Structures are given as C-alpha cells and as structure tokens.
C-alpha cells in the first residue's frame, strides 16, 4: 500500500479540504479521487500526490467522459 494525498481544488484555486488514504496503486487512487469529486461538488479537480510527488490530477470533466 502507498499513501496518497488528495487535494480538492475549487474554482478560485483554494483547497478547503484534503484526504489522506492508503491505496494499492494509481488506479485505486484515481477511483478515490473520483469518489471525492462526487462527495465535494464544489471541487473543480483533485490533485493526487504520492508522497512528495504530484502523481496526477482528476477533474469532473474526466469523470463525465468515462
């Protein structure tokens, strides 16, 4: 398991919430990011970090396309 940090970024650039979750891999972390977007509708996207490195971003637009 790896520890991922998820930052919910709103349209004004603020980050009012974050989540720290252990995930098996990037695919599980991506799924968690989509869960967070569902829970926090004001977030434009979620930055996903693996330790001190930014792994990827997930946006609501990606979710709609999936």
Description:
The structure is a single chain. This protein has 66 residues and is of the alpha+beta class. The chain has one domain. It is 30% helix and 47% strand. The chain is built from 2 helices and 4 strands. It has helices at 26-39, 60-65, and strands spanning 2-10, 17-23, 43-50, 53-59. The chain has a 4-stranded antiparallel beta sheet with strand order 2-1-3-4. Strand 3 (43-50) and strand 4 (53-59) form a beta hairpin. The radius of gyration is 11 Å and the shape is globular. It starts with a strand and ends with a helix. 15% of the residues are buried. The model has no long low-confidence stretch (mean pLDDT 92).
Number of domains: 1
Point out poorly predicted stretches: none
Question: What is the overall shape?
Answer: globular
Rg estimate, integer Å: 11 Å
Biggest sheet details: 4 strands, antiparallel
**Percentage of residues assigned to helices:** 25-40%
How far apart lie the N and C ends? 26 Å
By DSSP (H or I, 4+ residues per run), the number of helices equals: 2
How many strand elements? 4
Please trace the helix and strand order, writing H or E for each element.
Answer: EEHEEH
Q: pLDDT average, as an integer?
A: 92
Lateral strand order in the biggest sheet:
2-1-3-4
Task: Find the structural class using helix and strand composition.
Answer: alpha+beta
| Beta-strand residue percentage | over 45%
Keywords summarizing the entry:
2 helices, 4-stranded antiparallel beta sheet, 66 residues, single chain, 4 strands, 30% helix, alpha+beta
């Amino acid at each position: 398991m790896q520890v991922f940090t998820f930052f919910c970024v709103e349209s004004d650039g603020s980050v009012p919430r974050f989540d720290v979750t252990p995930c098996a891999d990037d695919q599980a972390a991506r799924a968690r990011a989509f869960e967070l977007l569902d829970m926090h509708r004001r977030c434009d996207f979620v930055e996903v970090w693996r330790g001190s490195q930014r792994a990827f971003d997930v946006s609501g637009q990606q979710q709609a396309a999936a």
